[in-house]
Amino acid sequence: MGSTAIVALLALSAQIASADETGVSFWVPGLFGSLAAVPATPGWSMGAVYYHTSVSAAGSVAAAKEIEIGRLPATVNVSLNANLSARGDLVFHPVLGGRFAVGVTGLFGNVNTSVAGTLTASLGPLVAMRSGLISDELTGVGDLYPMATLKWNNGGNNWMTYLTGDIPVGDYNPNNLSNIGIGHGAIDAGGGYTYLNPATSHEFSAVAGFTYNFKNPDTQYQNGVDFHFDWGASQFLSKQVFVGLVGYAYQQVSADSGQLPILGAFESMVLGRGPQVGYIFPIGKVQGYLNFKAYGEFNAANRPSGWNTG
What we know:
Elements: E1 43-58, H1 60-68, E2 75-95, E3 98-123, E4 126-141, E5 145-154, E6 157-166, E7 186-197, E8 202-213, E9 226-236, E10 241-252, E11 269-283, E12 286-301, E13 305-309
Antiparallel strand pairs: 1-2, 1-13, 2-3, 3-4, 3-5, 5-6, 6-7, 7-8, 8-9, 9-10, 10-11, 11-12, 12-13
């Protein structure tokens, strides 16, 4: 397919899509995918991501949410829906024989969260049950996510390193079910590889990283260290169109701190996979890139799960 400039997908974060404190983390699984490590053409670029998720959870995840807002449930269910979009600006410069990019991503979106269930309380022989529904909705802005990447190319082999994080300036209130900001800072770093064969038009990408989370000053809760692995495989049908598969693995590798004993270590994990379609097209002297990805989640523990598209 020749040398093609690819703009990496932008970072987004939303309370409905991740893990750790009440099932929420900084990293959104599936952020990286096909062509992740391919260097882009130097210059300015702008990207936009529409992200939709529909997830649910029960047991400890729902209990953690009600504990955070000052209630203590026994058996609850969680239903979450969000429509999110993100915009960011990236600047590219050659550095150390590679391609260096820096940028920042902001987030605007809507989150609707509900917790429905039954609370059973007992004191000696006395047992009381209460059923009800708690819900709220928020439309606002999220945190800021700066990111720096450094990429190298050698024929069909491409490598990258990245550093990103969370600046907690978004809409967040520990007394709300729905939040767009996550309430604490984070640092995330990792590396990746893309194999792109121009002769066969085969492509495979994989990116792995770790997240260190700072303590939430409002709740005195600190998420453990998270590991994430995103991958994508595709076949180019032409110089502009490719189809393939994407997936991710997300695993918390150390326990949270600050949670109530009822929650235990509250370590989370999830796997996801699904189809993708990509389209590369010219816009005057610049290049556009559209990518549609859909994920179905499975093997989830201590986090909401369901399906996501973007």
